[in-house]
Amino acid sequence: MDIERANQFCRSYGDAMASGTAAALAGHYGFPYISFTGGYISRFEDAADANGSVQAHLDRFQRGGLGLDIRLSGFRVEPVSGTGALCHLKWEIHPKNGAPGWAWDNVYGLRQSEDAQHFEFNISDNEFGELLARYPDFMSV
Hints:
Oligomer: single chain
Number of strands: 6
Mean pLDDT: 96
Number of helices: 4
Largest sheet: 6 strands, mixed
Shape: globular
């Protein structure tokens, strides 16, 4: 595991979030990509599937009045093998509706080869737990 490459990849994912575009985020995923969230499992088979699902999620933030000022505020890469790592990414949101912001940690599974790397999965229980504690109807907006 090349830790510096993994660190760069995490920063790149933060830049993708700052861009607010689904394609930039989904460009960091390997397929199939699996998302674990509060007991639910979502699976993206390909880039088109991921782009659609990610865009729907970003749109929900906009419709809910939160906006997309979501920033990567820190991360830690924990190697688990020569080609795999758990990446603990800390995010902060600064809502455009004037509500106080908050932070959460998500975990992403990184797979690395000599010439490429991608996230294979994420565990975003904290993201949704914090979000739904503040906006219980978020998924219906």
